[in-house]
Write a structure and sequence with these properties.
Shape: globular
Largest sheet: 7 strands, parallel
Mean pLDDT: 84
Number of domains: 2
Strand content: 15-25%
Oligomer: single chain
CATH architecture of the largest domain: 3-Layer(aba) Sandwich
Radius of gyration: 20 Å
CATH topology of the largest domain: Rossmann fold
């Protein structure tokens, strides 16, 4: 990604090569979803490592194209040209290439694919921020982030973390009697303790948290929602080198979130199959779930999840919003899953800059990056409009979406997230 005026090209080679864990139904972070070869694995939906500045105090905000896209960006990606590989290494099935043995590759085996930005392909956030800041009687909102952990010490995240006011930190006592000792900012459901941040394996969750509510004016990036009112409850149900977690851990995390007052829940992972208990827990919850649609097959080519379901994205409940990955050219990323019935809306998810552990920042790509965009917008709208129900929030986000011809027949709303239109909906 680069400014058009730059003298040198920035080449992004995005790849993932991590197989799913070899055990029953698991959840895995989105970075690994695109590379997962096991049909019974929940996988993270992300990969990853021009603008007028959105916030002069946050120098990295100028690279947050999803918030303001003036068309001055492009990305050059090196992709393997399969036609250039000798047929000895390529097996073609009835649906195209189904197996490849990679020989030694040279420059002639790659194509340079350029994606050029289209001005206005963004979530239209600036006026929404003004509307929110001028709104009185805002209500607090808790967002449950069920993911890998979150680096709660990051300077952009310290002020937006949920705090369990009924728990005394680090006294080794379950003060509120909820069965979790010292669960001050959330809980680690993988290890059964309150360590919501365990190290570099928590990049994915930390990145999502920054998109939702990174603080403004502290020299980093900007989040969608105001961390003074929107708090992130970190529920670590995914982890390890492959970003995996059991269905039981996720189910327990959902129940914890609901019992501790979360209204909105971000799920940026997926699997080709889930237990009935997981389906019923989501269906019967009072929370609004924002979920990633998934990053395609093993070749990172998006597919129709109406025909080939991925869960939880293919759960068509009233309390679920499924999100596809929109690139800055106004089209779905090649890797993004879609579905005119099961996928509700598109949001930016390609080369998204956000927080990562160690007070750092990184670009990541995937529907895992798209879902937090909608989560942040939903939390902002729900906070600003106390008269709205969570069902109202879903309906408004869908109805107010910015319609794009390319999205017709790809997502139910035929549109991309438009935060300002949502904030104004029904008030004009």
């Amino acid at each position: 990604m680069m400014r058009k005026s730059a003298k040198t090209a920035f080449t992004a080679v995005l790849a993932a090569a991590v197989a799913a864990a070899p055990f029953h139904t698991v959840f895995a972070s989105e970075a690994f979803c695109k590379a997962s070869k096991a049909s019974a694995a929940f996988a993270l939906h992300s990969i990853g490592p021009g603008l007028n500045n959105l916030s002069l105090e946050d120098e990295n905000a100028e690279f947050q194209w999803a918030f303001q896209n003036d068309g001055n960006l492009n990305e050059t990606e090196r992709r393997i040209n399969f036609e250039s590989i000798d047929d000895l290494y390529v097996h073609y099935g009835k649906n195209g290439i189904d197996a490849i043995s990679i020989p030694p590759l040279g420059p002639n085996n790659f194509n340079a694919v350029s994606t050029v930005a289209v001005a206005g392909i963004d979530i239209n956030i600036r006026e929404a921020w003004d509307i929110y800041s001028q709104t009185e009687n805002k209500r607090p909102v808790t967002v449950a982030l069920i993911d890998t952990g979150v680096d709660f010490t990051h300077k952009d995240l310290t002020s937006c973390m949920w705090v369990n006011a009924d728990e005394i930190p680090d006294d080794g006592i379950d003060n509120d009697g909820n069965g979790y000792i010292d669960d001050v900012n959330g809980w680690n459901f993988l290890e059964g303790n309150n360590q919501i941040y365990t190290g570099r394996e928590d990049v994915h969750g930390t990145h999502a948290a920054g998109t939702i509510a990174a603080s403004k004016g502290d020299g980093g990036v900007v989040g969608i929602a105001d961390g003074s009112y929107v708090k992130i409850m970190s529920l670590k149900a995914l982890g390890g080198s492959e970003g995996m977690g059991s269905a039981d851990s996720v189910i327990e995390a959902i129940r914890y979130a609901e019992a501790n007052g979360a209204q909105i829940c971000n799920l940026s992972f997926g699997s080709r199959e889930v237990p009935e208990e997981f389906i019923s827990v989501v269906r019967d919850s009072h929370m609004l779930f924002i979920v990633s649609a998934g990053n395609g097959d093993k070749y990172e080519i998006g597919f129709d999840i109406d025909k080939y379901p991925v869960y939880p994205a293919s759960l068509t409940f009233d309390n679920v919003i499924s999100v596809a990955n929109l690139s800055f050219n106004g089209k779905l990323d090649d890797s993004s899953n879609y579905g005119p019935y099961n996928v509700d809306i598109a949001a930016p998810g390609s080369l998204i800059l956000s927080t990562i552990p160690g007070n750092s920042y990184a670009f990541m790509t995937g529907t895992s990056m798209s879902a937090p965009m909608v989560t942040g917008a939903a939390a902002m709208l729900y906070s600003a409009r106390p008269e709205l129900s969570l069902q109202d929030v879903k309906n408004i986000l869908m109805a107010s979406s910015h319609k794009l011809a390319f999205l017709k027949g790809k997502v139910l709303s035929s549109g991309m997230l438009d935060v300002t239109a949502a904030m104004k909906w029904g008030k004009q």
